[in-house]
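Database export, one record per block. Field names are fixed; values are copied verbatim from the stored entry.
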Amino acid sequence: MRAIVLMAALLWHGQAVAWNRTGHWITAVVAHDALRQNDPAAFAAAVALLRQHPSAEDWLSWKTEFPQLDDSLILFMMASVFADDARRGKFESLDRPDWHYINYAIEPGKTTADIASSRALTGRLPDALTDNLALLRDGARPEAERALALSWVLHLVGDLHQPLHTTGLVNADFPTGDRGGNDVFVRDPQRAEFAVRLHALWDDAVGGPTRDMPRVVALAREWAASRAGALSPSSAADWLAESYRASVELGYRNGTLRYALLADVLPPPPEQSATAGAPSAQPGAPMTGPQPLRGTFAPPLPEGYVQAMRSFSEARVVQAGRRMAELLRQVSAGR
């Protein structure tokens, strides 16, 4: 029965692969607006190319629900999450799970927040971005292929700015790394009775998943007007180093963050729950669905952790959008 509960928990809390839809949409809106304002020709070229994407017709169907939004805005926003949407459905053959992250080791007591002192464990994020930029720049390739590459670029730049897409905690619990915080659990700061993966906590740092495009557009423009977010440094390697440092210092608190393991937060088998007098199914009855992970068995986050995470992440998604716009300007100019 324990195995059934374990499987249910894994299905319910599957490995996260990005900022959630809200985060990527905010980055896409900022990039869309900055590119349109600063380089109309590059903007027009990007929009024209996205219209050739294999999923463009599906994306523009959102216009029925949100007619007040420009086609170009919908195309940018939906392209930025195509890499996640492709995990299921008719474009599943285009799913590339290891493109979303690069886990550089965090080894408390052995390294600093400088990525140069670390080592890569798993993932292909920087290489995937390089490869898709090369395809995007290749005018001899079919437009549909270049449009697909553009959607990956829009997504991967966002992923590269999410700190927990760049690290893996290595210690006695995780000799090969904690998969970007997917294997460590903390108490959910909003629902203390539940535990949450550290990675998922960061994915939702700028807001939970939503389909309310107009609300996200308004939020993105509000944040873009109020948050600076420097363009420099301009290389993907530098963005990676920034995210690594943030993961070490903010995500894992320089190795001092307390966490629980999956075995700690799993609900007990029904037999144990019934014996303890807790509400449960009849002893021996099969589990009927995913079970929430128990927050009382996970340590709470340090004071000020959530505020620092949100403040950093809100500025970070805006910064990613501005950098994305500049990157697309360079691609359009042949650089």
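Remark 1: The beta strands are 102-106, 120-123, 167-169, 185-187, 195-197.
Remark 2: The two ends are 58 Å apart (CA to CA).
End of record.
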